[in-house]
Amino acid sequence: MKSLFDGVGVALVTPFLDNKIDFSSLQKLLEKCISEGADAIVALATTGEAATISFAERKQVILFCKKVIAQRAKLIVGTGQNNFSVCKKLTRQAKSLGADGCLVVTPYYNKTTQNGLIKFYEELAKIKFPIIMYNVPARTGLNLELSTIEKIISSNPFVFGIKESTCDINRIIKLHKICKDKIAIYSGEDDLNFLFYCLGGNGTISVTANAYCKQVKEVFSACANEKLKLGLSKQNLLSNINSLMFCETNPVPIKYALHKLNIISSPQVRMPLVQLEISHKAMIDETINRP
């Protein structure tokens, strides 16, 4: 089976200070995640506010992450775009800078067909760089259909996995049947990590793991060792936190939590995102130290 990693991938935030990348906070965050068992760092994707990061900034972040990680975890870079030529450029950049693979969201807004999706990943594979597909219809307005996934993985040697961000249990069960022993499947919904593992999933690409990597890894490890009751209890301990991390648009809540935990210097996000509502700040403040 093709796989870039098994276990916990951190959907990494990009810390900002005065609207510039805060590399001091980024180093602190990376060291924390790796020390707590992160198997992969997934930089410059949705949680990393990739849409607001310039090409030059991307280079800085990739090289910085690679240096700090120092092969202690895989480095996967988000390169998805609805402009295919830009997606190719970003993917080539990630490859040339020494990343281990790329996370590529289905092209949003343009509303291509399922055949268009097959062609999109087929053309991207010509770069010869490992790809994790990313299905998140709530953000893209486009669902990667199961029959399309089956066609892609049967013919595309550079698709190594899929991150699935849906809550349709029936779909998730069928997805695991399609991908079993072929490519890795990663949970894109922190609330459903335990379910993904029970069905044979290879891990998670987790928002919550920015702040609670140790606890997220404990759920995976318990399930990997067939200690399902323990895994479920560990997952339940994270239930409130997982919900709060999505009380507003990701990564606004997780950045606030990381700031309150003194892991990053500022909860700043770039426009069009804005700071967390006061009521949600209070909810996170009450819960943040419990896991």
Overview of the molecule:
By secondary structure, the chain is an alpha/beta fold. It has a single domain (7-287), classed as TIM Barrel. The protein is 46% helix and 14% strand. The protein is built from 13 helices and ten strands. A hairpin with a 2-residue loop joins strand 2 (16-17) and strand 3 (20-21). Helix 6 runs parallel beside helix 7 (169-179). It starts with 6 loop residues before the first strand and ends with a helix.
Shape: globular
**Poorly predicted residue ranges:** none
Q: Structural class of the helices, strands and pairings? A: alpha/beta
Quantity of strands, as a count: 10
Strand percentage lies at 5-15%
Helix content: 40-55%
Radius of gyration: 18 Å
Number of domains: 1
H and E string: EEEHEHEHEHEHHEHEHEHHHHH
Spatial strand arrangement across the major sheet: 1-4-5-6-7-8-9-10
The CATH topology label is TIM Barrel
The mean pLDDT is 97
CATH class: Alpha Beta
Distance, first to last CA: 34 Å
Largest sheet: 8 strands, parallel, barrel
CATH architecture classification: Alpha-Beta Barrel
Throw out a few tags for this protein.
single chain, 291 residues, alpha/beta, TIM Barrel, 8-stranded parallel beta barrel, two-stranded antiparallel ribbon, 10 strands, 14% strand, globular
Give a brief description.
About 45% of the residues lie in helices and about 15% in strands. With about 290 residues, it is of the alpha/beta class.
Secondary structure elements and pairings:
Blueprint: E1 7-11, E2 16-17, E3 20-21, H1 23-35, E4 40-43, H2 55-69, E5 74-78, H3 84-96, E6 101-105, H4 114-124, E7 131-135, H5 137-140, H6 146-155, E8 159-164, H7 169-179, E9 184-187, H8 193-198, E10 203-206, H9 209-224, H10 228-237, H11 239-244, H12 252-260, H13 278-287
Parallel strand pairs: 1-4, 1-10, 4-5, 5-6, 6-7, 7-8, 8-9, 9-10
Antiparallel strand pairs: 2-3
